[in-house]
Amino acid sequence: MYRIAIVDDDAEQCAGLHDMLRDLIPAELDCEIGMYASLGELDGRQVDIVFADICLGDGENGIEEVLQMFADRSAVQVIYVTGHVEYCSAVYDTRHIGFLVKPVRRQELADAFHRALGRLRDLREQPFAVRFNNTSYVVRPAQVMYVESKLRVAVFHGENNSAVRTYMKLSDVAERLPSRFHRCHSSYLVNFDFVDAITKSDFVLTDGTHVPISHRRWPGSNDAFERYMVNPDE
């Protein structure tokens, strides 16, 4: 899932951008769009892409807020949206991937949105480090067949019975991995790249492993796998 935040103190502008974005998102892409009047409302929220107005209510400056909130969150893709072209240089004090001038044109919005998605996909493909029992291990997403959650421990299962463990919630693990990883059970994520078959109760992987699918999650898991087979790069 990709979590998108639109921040604009003008409710009409916010809703208009929301509707344009919703039209641009393909059906197979799992996205959640939230609308906010202030960047401060994002404090503590998990977000992947932020469309931020620069001149917000009560004198709030979007550039300064982005600098404070996302300086150490390089994975967050920031796209500025403003009616003030004079800020086109000031935004370079912050990490961002787009600068859109109101009224926003559909094609420019689409271009910025797809750049952000591409960057997120690239980041989620990168190896990352986890710790367990005072040792650091490298997790390489392309080599992970499935992830299992056991008593607050996430186990990354690879080929040839290899496994890496760390203390992490499964929901947090999902945020670190590419979209081809699907949560099919409260305790499992499966990498569609390694799926050979799907039944009413589990995914059958290339090495014969059966990853369970909960009854509640089966319809969504089946739909997600069918979409993946049509568009594996999404």
Give a quick rundown of the structure.
With 234 residues, the protein is of the alpha/beta class.
Could you explain the architecture of this structure?
It is a single chain. The chain has 234 residues and is of the alpha/beta class. It folds into two domains: 124 residues, Rossmann fold (3-Layer(aba) Sandwich); 103 residues, OB fold (Dihydrolipoamide Acetyltransferase, E2P), CATH 2.40.50. Helix content is 27%, strand content 32%. The chain has five helices and 15 strands. The strands form four sheets. A five-stranded parallel β-sheet has the order 2-1-3-4-5, with helices on both faces. Strands 10-9-8-12-11 form a five-stranded antiparallel β-sheet. The longest helix has 20 residues. The radius of gyration is 20 Å and the shape is elongated. The termini are close together. The relative contact order is 0.10. The model has no long low-confidence stretch (mean pLDDT 91). InterPro entries: CheY-like_superfamily (IPR011006), LytR-like (IPR046947), LytTR_DNA-bd_dom (IPR007492), Sig_transdc_resp-reg_receiver (IPR001789).
Features of this protein?
5 helices; 234 residues; LytR-like; 2 domains; 15 strands; five-stranded parallel beta sheet; alpha/beta; OB fold (Dihydrolipoamide Acetyltransferase, E2P); LytTR family two component transcriptional regulator; Rossmann fold; five-stranded antiparallel beta sheet
